[in-house]
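[Q] Does anyone have a clean structure-token version of this?
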Amino acid sequence: MKKEDIKKVVLAYSGGLDTSIIIPWLKENYNNCEVIAVSGNVGQASELDGLEEKAIKTGASKIYIEDLTDEFVNDYVIPTVKAGAKYEDYMLGTSFARPIIAKRIVEIALAEGADAICHGCTGKGNDQVRFELAIKAFAPDMPIIAPWREWSIKSREEEIEYAEKHNVPLKINRETNYSKDKNLWHLSHEGLDLEDPGNEPTYEKEGFLEMGVSPIKAPDVPTYITLDFESGVPVAFNGEKMSAKDIILNLNKVGGENGIGLLDIVENRLVGMKCRGVYETPGGAILYKALNVLETLCLDKYTAHKKQELAITFADLVYNGQWFTPLREALSAFVDKAMENVTGKVRLKLYKGNMINAGVWSDYSLYDAEIATFDEDEVYDQKDSAGFINLFGLPIKVQAKVRNKNKNKQEDKRK
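[A] Here you go.
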């Protein structure tokens, strides 16, 4: 589609630096087109304050602020946690938020009769792929505008200059201009001093951490919590039944207070480069830990091991923006089946960034104390192990005999 044919654009709008300047930029470079801003609420909290006024003031004709929090947790977060999927220890906070936002943007763009969809992702990042693959899944022929691949702006410093020139209000300044992404699951920090992996994150500096505290500043006494699960889904916190979203919010609070869920990692981006990021995921870290503890009781060996293998594939798909694919759906179907009996209660002790097992119970436990005991029992005949070892080791024994036979033949030839 030619530029002059684009009259109406739907913009993925967060109100951050990138998308704030995109509104006037679109109007300047796309024939004063109509810009409709869409913000998907996935738990950004205060970041949504004043968003409507800001969007209209900077040139948008209207703004949609869509509450996606329950759908985000139930249909994206929980399936990923159940899968045990982490990308190089990263708990995928940004990755699985993009598909749901992009899906809703497409729905609004189609309803509004938009000529194009625009996003503010950079050409160096993963999010451009995540947004655009999701858009292609629901509107395969929709034109996509990516200003970072078009404009002459080369840095965040130049973005700030553009914003100041066009009277675009910003909540950041040059000194605190970390690139951040926040939702109800996590908060990421990138840029500035973090670009040097040799620099220690300033965890103790006032204002750096937003979802919790440094383990150094956490209480000197432990906090005990319990989580109940049904088929791998969290259903109660400290004995009180509540939605998965409310459980995560409660875990964020208690986990943050105890310095849980900090991750400093140099990860391998989809686009080929390495990038250093610091993540806060207090509630998520607790969920992963608790569910893993419960799985040790309820999953048989082969299912547990295969699930661990497939978790890597699942994480790669989520990280690489391939949520809406047959393989991801098939993996989720496997996970749902595998987790049918992962039901029970887990108690954890939280202390200065640590999560310590403090008890686990399940009616579906495959752990039998009578069989596993080191004391005398009447259900396990230790003599049976001799025959088992003979059969289990038979291939090794045969291989050794063949090796020795051929070795002897070679020695005889030398003689």
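[Q] Thanks! Anything notable?
[A] The two ends are 83 Å apart (CA to CA).
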